[in-house]
Amino acid sequence: MTEKIIEFDNVVAGYSPSLTILNGTTLFANKGEITLLIGPNGAGKSTLLKTLFGMLTPRSGEVRFEGRRINGWTPRQLLAQGMAFVPQGRNLFAALSVRHNLELGGITLPRAQLAGRIEEVITRFPSIGSRIDNQASTLSGGEQKQLEIGRALLLRPRVLLIDEPSIGLSPKLVQEVMSLLRHLADGGTTILMVEQNVRTALKFSNRALVLEMGRLALDRPASELLDDPDLNRLFLGGSPVQ
Predict the structure, then answer these.
(1) What fold, for 1-82+157-242?
(2) pLDDT tens, position by position, 114-162
(3) Residue 209 pLDDT > 90, yes or no?
(4) Is 53 helix (H, G, I), strand (E, B) or coil?
(5) CA dihedral for 7, 12, 13, 14, sign (positive or negative)
(6) Which DSSP helix (H) or strand (E) runs through 146?
(7) Whole-angstrom Cα distance, residue 174 to residue 149?
(8) How many other β-carbons are positioned within 10 Å of the β-carbon of residue 150?
(9) Following DSSP, what letter does each residue of 171-215 receive, concatenated?
(10) CA 65, CA 234: separation in Å to the nearest integer?
């Protein structure tokens, strides 16, 4: 039986009074599933993640996490409650080592516990484990993305928000990252993902939510959208889904 863990109820949010992106957004994500957010540029996908993680405060409506209203909560508060965010692009301390990047990600953990968590991460990502004392800037794009995800996993989040995980990765690494996310979801982690590599992401997701102009336009099982031509025509400007 599915259980709603994230809920947006008629949420309005944006970056200034004159720049509203979410226009009464209402949707939900189920516990232990991968929910994929798709839609054209400017539809509100990344804005939704930022609003959920407390980087933007809703002007109206309500955001709920496990049934609790979290409007106005800070990212630090949400981290403490089991939510983590891997934003788009590179978000590492480039001049610091891989080890120091991981230590900063687990700064709220007791020192003895942190060592064990870092060991878990480098076991999961052996390529960054072999370069644990190298500067983060010397890692390949794929290794940097693995480090970002690994850093987020240090706190063993119950909800993982991830924005465009495939950017800059080879097709092989994209498959590896998606397989990792699927494994995490199968283990009970809830994942809310924005991804432009739609066809690949749909294969690993449970549900797909299509946003259009800051509103939910479609909510379907991911498997049903894989060969749906209306997805291209209505929401991706008529171009083929990659």
Answers:
(1) Rossmann fold (3.40.50)
(2) 999 999 999 988 889 899 999 999 998 888 888 999 999 998 999 999 9
(3) yes
(4) coil
(5) positive
(6) helix 141-153
(7) 13
(8) 24
(9) HHHHHHHHHHHHHHHHTT-EEEEE-S-HHHHHHH-SEEEEEETTE
(10) 31
Write down the pTM of the prediction.
Answer: 0.89
**Distances in whole angstroms, Cα of residue 220 to Cα of each of 35, 178, 207:** 10, 19, 6
Per-domain boundaries in the chain = 1-82+157-242, 93-156
**In this structure, are residues 49 and 63 in contact, taking their beta carbons and an 8 Å threshold?**
no
Q: What does the DSSP 8-state code read for residue 42?
A: T
| Amino acid making up residue 93 | F
Say if CB 20 and CB 14 are below 8 A apart.
yes
pLDDT for the residue numbered 226: 81
Q: What pLDDT, on the 0 to 100 scale, is given for residue 181?
A: 93
Q: What is the pLDDT of residues 44-63, one digit of tens each?
A: 999 999 999 999 999 999 99
DSSP per-residue letters across 95-144: TSBHHHHHHHHTTTS-HHHHHHHHHHHHHH-HHHHTTTTSBGGGS-HHHH
